[in-house]
Design goal:
Structural class: alpha/beta
Largest sheet: 8 strands, parallel
Helix content: 40-55%
Strand content: 5-15%
Number of helices: 13
Number of strands: 11
């Protein structure tokens, strides 16, 4: 079985994280991934401290395995959420959409492993200097907020730049992708889109079906004009947003157009007015499965691929 230093560092069986997907990554999914041997994550998203505390207590009632919280640093509740994870002594905090340096002293004092998502070498170096236990190098193939660099380019550069373990994310959805991440020097992987179709994922059934029906060109990136590019599945909402983005619509109206769109997709299943975040790897996701089965299959396939990696070299 594939085991890397990140497994010993976090006390997990498989070196795999579940992505902290807003409105999707709740206690149910996080517990299922952790019970399956990976690191399940609760997404704090734009929720307040009380909601997050309830989710932390809920996941502890469902698993005795390590889990984490994904803190979105752009959230208006980021300060109070940062305090909650320290008070609750959450085992792992993963951060996204910003620089977590201002919170790291308190988190580290609480014994928390801090593992930020980075989209550049410079940010990886900065966070490592502030005491991060590892970094997640996420390429632009991923769903949700994306950077400019692809996973294939970003991961090896970050591996060479920092002395902490690197987790690869973005465009990984099967064992071949897991094997490729290890070949690039990563010590683990983070998957979001693949876990959207886990049986334990409580996202709206319409969302799951859109992921299962996705093809290679089913995703698109919008939001570059406002400086926050996002990858999602093509639908009437995203096509309208893209059209508006390149029109004379004022920035304030464009920003308002994005309000609540993810919730409409994930909670209400609104196929016309919702924003269905998903990575390019959605094209290879073809069925619903228990989270633990997804993990086992990924690493079984990755082992097979890695054992045969030299087959074509003469």
């Amino acid at each position: 079985m594939i085991k890397t230093p990140i497994c010993d560092l976090l006390g997990i069986e498989y070196p795999i994280f579940q992505g902290g997907m807003a409105w999707i990554a709740d206690a149910s999914l996080a517990a299922a991934v952790s019970n399956g041997g990976g690191l399940g994550l609760i997404a704090a998203m734009n929720a307040d401290a009380n909601w997050l505390r309830e989710q932390i207590h809920a996941v502890r009632g469902l698993t005795d395995k390590p889990f984490g919280v994904n803190v979105m640093l752009m959230s208006p509740f980021a300060d109070e959420v940062a305090k909650v994870v320290a008070e609750e002594r959450v085992p792992v905090v993963v951060t996204g959409a910003g620089n977590p340096s201002k919170y790291m002293k308190d988190w580290l004092a609480a014994g928390i492993r801090v593992i930020p998502v980075v989209a550049s070498v410079a940010m990886a170096k900065l966070i490592a200097r502030h005491g991060a236990s590892a970094v997640i190098a996420e390429g632009g193939e991923s769903g949700g907020h994306v950077g400019d660099l692809t996973t294939l380019v970003l991961v090896p550069q970050v591996v060479d730049a920092v002395d902490v373990p690197v987790i690869a994310a973005g465009g990984i959805g099967d064992g071949r992708g897991v094997a490729a991440a290890f070949m690039l020097g990563a010590q683990g992987v983070q998957l979001g889109t693949r876990f959207l179709t886990a049986n334990e994922c409580n996202v709206h059934p319409n969302y799951k079906q859109k992921v299962l029906k996705a093809k290679d060109l089913s995703t698109m990136v919008t939001g570059k004009r406002l400086g926050h590019p996002v990858r999602s599945l093509r639908n009437p909402y995203t096509l309208n947003y893209a059209k508006s983005e390149y029109s004379s619509m004022p920035d304030e109206e464009l920003e308002a157009l994005g309000g609540g769109a993810l919730r409409r997709a994930a909670v209400e299943g609104d196929e016309k007015n919702g924003c269905f975040l998903a990575g390019q790897i959605a094209a290879v996701v073809n069925r619903e499965q228990p989270a633990a089965e997804i993990i086992r299959e990924l690493f079984s396939e990755a082992e097979t691929v890695l054992k045969g990696a030299g087959t074509w070299v003469k």
